[in-house]
Automatic annotation (TrEMBL):
Keywords for this protein: ATP-binding, Nucleotide-binding, Transport
Domain ABC transporter, chain residue ranges per copy: 9-259
Species this chain originates from: Alkalihalobacillus trypoxylicola
Family the entry assigns: Belongs to the ABC transporter superfamily.
Record lineage: Bacteria, Bacillati, Bacillota, Bacilli, Bacillales
InterPro entries named in the record: AAA+_ATPase (IPR003593), ABC_transp_ATP-bind (IPR050319), ABC_transporter-like_ATP-bd (IPR003439), ABC_transporter-like_CS (IPR017871), Oligopep_ABC_C (IPR013563), P-loop_NTPase (IPR027417)
Protein name as annotated: Peptide ABC transporter substrate-binding protein
GO biological process: peptide transport; transmembrane transport
PANTHER family with a match to the protein in the record: D,D-DIPEPTIDE TRANSPORT ATP-BINDING PROTEIN DDPF-RELATED, TRANSPORT ATP-BINDING PROTEIN
Pfam families per UniProt: ABC_tran (PF00005), oligo_HPY (PF08352)
Length: 335
C-alpha cells in the first residue's frame, strides 16, 4: 500500500448544507445537512472505501474532496494545501494531482467528441507535452485501460458501459494524478463488467502507486478494493477501520444492520428473510437530538436520545460513533 506514514488527504470538521424548499407561509429557511462534521485522514498509497445508504452524503463528500463543491464549514487539506481556500490558479495546479471518476460513464463524456480528443483535452488545458506527443500518450492511456488505438476515433455512443468507464479512468490518468476519487464507478454496470473494472483499478493503483477513495453502496465491491472503510449515516462517519475489521466485527449497530441486509454469496449462509434496518431514514432537515440512528437502533438507550456520540476507539485501528458499541461479535463474511 505504499508509504502509509505520509498523510495525503486530511478532512477536518467538514460540513455541507443546502437550502431546502421553503414550505408555504414559512418564514424560516430550512437546511439540508448533507455532510456533518467529517474528520478523517487518508494515507498515501491506500484505498479508503466509503459506504452507506443512498442519501447518506457520500457522493457529496467526494465532491467536497475534489473541490467541485465548497464546504459550509471545515477544511480539506490535500498534499498540505487547504484546497477550499485556494485561488483559481493554485487550484488549477492541484487538479493535476486530484482527479475524479464519475458514476455515469456516458454523461461524463462529451457525446460530440471522439474519445481521442476527450483524452487529449486535459493535457491541452494543462499544457502538457508528453514524450512522443499527445497522440502517442492517448494510445498509451487506451492500452492501460484495455482498449486500443483504433478506439480513439470513435464516439461515446459506440461503446458499452464498461468501455465508457474505462475511458473515464483513462481520462483521470492522463494528468498523472496521485489521488483519484471514484464516485460509485461500477454501480451503473453489469455485475460481470463490475469485476473487470474493479480489477483494472487495483492493477492501476499498484502500477502507479495511486491513492484511491472508493465511494459505493455495493458492499462486496467496496470490500474488494479497500484497505480501510468509512461508514456514513446521515452525513456523518459512524464507523471507520480496516476493511476486515468493519466487515467481520462491526462496532456500530448501523454497520451491523447494513451488513446483515446484504445476502452472503454462498447459498448455505443465506437466511430465509435477511434482516432489514427498522424504521424510516430520519429527515435530513429536522435531525433528532442526540444520535441520528436512535429511531432505528435495537440498542437505543436514554443517553442516545440526549447526546450525539463522537468517534471513539473500539479496538486498534477501528472507531465507532456509538455510546454502546457492539463488541466481541462472531465473525461474519461478506463477499
Amino acid at each position: 500500500m505504499g508509504n502509509h506514514q505520509e498523510i495525503l488527504l486530511k478532512l477536518s470538521g467538514l460540513s455541507k448544507n443546502y437550502g431546502a424548499k421553503r414550505k408555504l407561509f414559512s418564514k424560516s429557511k430550512e437546511v439540508v445537512h448533507a455532510v456533518r462534521d467529517v474528520s478523517l485522514e487518508v494515507k498515501k498509497g491506500e484505498t479508503l472505501g466509503i459506504i452507506g445508504e443512498s442519501g447518506c452524503g457520500k457522493s457529496t463528500l467526494g465532491r467536497l474532496i475534489t473541490n467541485l463543491e465548497k464546504p459550509t464549514s471545515g477544511e480539506v487539506i490535500f498534499n498540505n494545501k487547504k484546497i477550499e481556500s485556494l485561488h483559481a490558479k493554485e487550484m488549477f495546479d492541484v487538479r493535476k494531482q486530484l482527479q475524479i471518476i464519475f458514476q455515469d460513464p456516458y454523461s461524463s463524456l462529451n457525446p460530440r467528441k471522439p474519445i481521442g480528443e476527450t483524452l487529449k483535452e486535459p493535457m491541452y488545458v494543462h499544457k502538457m507535452s508528453p514524450e512522443g506527443g499527445l497522440d502517442k500518450r492517448v494510445d498509451e492511456l487506451l492500452e492501460l485501460v484495455g482498449l486500443n488505438s483504433e478506439h480513439k476515433r470513435k464516439y461515446p455512443h459506440e461503446f458499452s458501459g464498461g468501455q465508457r468507464q474505462r475511458i473515464g479512468i483513462a481520462r483521470a490518468l492522463s494528468l498523472n494524478p496521485s489521488m483519484i476519487v471514484c464516485d460509485e464507478p461500477v454501480s451503473a454496470l453489469d455485475v460481470s463488467v463490475q469485476a473487470q473494472i474493479l480489477n483494472l483499478l487495483l492493477d492501476l493503483k499498484e502500477q502507479f502507486n495511486l491513492t484511491l477513495i472508493f465511494i459505493g453502496h455495493g458492499l462486496g465491491a467496496v470490500k474488494y478494493v479497500s484497505d480501510r472503510i468509512a461508514v456514513m449515516y446521515l452525513g456523518r462517519i459512524v464507523e471507520i477501520g480496516k476493511a476486515e475489521q468493519v466487515f467481520n466485527t462491526p462496532s456500530h449497530p448501523y454497520t451491523k444492520a447494513l451488513l446483515d441486509s446484504y445476502p452472503p454469496a454462498h447459498p448455505s449462509k443465506r437466511k430465509d428473510s435477511p434482516p432489514l434496518i427498522d424504521g424510516d431514514l430520519p429527515d435530513p432537515i429536522h435531525l433528532p437530538k442526540g444520535c441520528s440512528f436512535q429511531s432505528r437502533c435495537p440498542n437505543v438507550q436514554e443517553k442516545c436520545k440526549l447526546e450525539q456520540p463522537e468517534l471513539v476507539n473500539c479496538s486498534e485501528g477501528q472507531s465507532a460513533a456509538c455510546h454502546y458499541p457492539i463488541l466481541n461479535l462472531d465473525e461474519r463474511e461478506v463477499t
